[in-house]
Amino acid sequence: METQKAILVTGGSTGFGRLTAQTLAREGYTVFASMRDVSGRNAAASAQLRTLADKEGLSLQVVELDVTDAGSVQQAVAEVIDQAGRIDVLVNNAGIVYVGLSEAFTLDQAQRIFDTNFFGVVRMNRAVLPHMRQQGSGLLVHISSVAGRLVLPFMGLYSATKFALEALAESYRYELSSVGIDSVIVEPGGYPTNIATSNPGPADQVRVAEYGAIAEIPDKMFASITELFSGPDAPHPQEVADVVAGLIAMPAGARPLRTLVGRDAQAAMRLNDVAVQAQRTLMEQFGIAHLNEATVARRI
Known about the structure:
By secondary structure, this protein is α/β, with parallel strands linked by helices. It has one domain (6-95, 109-197, 236-299): NAD(P)-binding Rossmann-like Domain (Rossmann fold). 46% of the residues lie in helices and 13% in strands. The chain has 10 helices and 8 strands. Helix 1 links the parallel strand 1 (6-9) and strand 2. Helix 1 (15-26) runs parallel beside helix 2 (43-56), helix 3 packs parallel to helix 5 (119-135) and helix 4 (107-117) runs parallel beside helix 6. The longest helix has 21 residues, at 156-176. The chain is globular, with a radius of gyration of 19 Å. 41% of the residues are buried.
């Protein structure tokens, strides 16, 4: 295995991001786990990762990075390149989730979730792609969600950001294939991570109250999810980290566009299969079918 790949993971303080960073470092890669406020709110997470790296002799470093801040993004990417000499893989994992009545989320809240889940990815990809194109190789991994293909009520804003992310990542797939760069999407189902338990809820409680009994459903949904995740059969987020590691280990050009992870995520497989055929037909009509090669979906 090629062990000198330099990998940057966003949202590395908890959940999928942290597990992915640890897993990849243990695989022998040079890993940079990025997070906001490493000296403040994420000081403990930063210290734990550094302790793990020292204890196990891992090439695992913590980098300060806020995906909503263009200056922070550029500085972090420059730091990684300065230390590693290159960036081979970017794992776009940072994200937040809202659950609640869509109308009751304010415009500020909508802008905030898009700024993290979508525009944060735009900032990250724009920062690393010039270096990857110069190298003639690279991999963009986009941690999406089954909610980026299917919609549940009360998760409209979250799904909207993931639908947007899916479109962007797939477009990158076609546009970058000829320059040696892969763009892939990982679609997890529900997993017990902090992103699933830190929902701020809608800010406009006046509008929430106007919905009456319907407004009680999101809290009941959240309680059901919490109960499911606390049970003995709860899915383990390590599954997602392992899928990311598997994609990185695959040869360039052979990686599937989409990978579904988790039992509940399989509901989107038929939709993904149909989309592959429809996309192929559309691109043939525009005379660009050659950009659609190796665009397949798989399940884990």
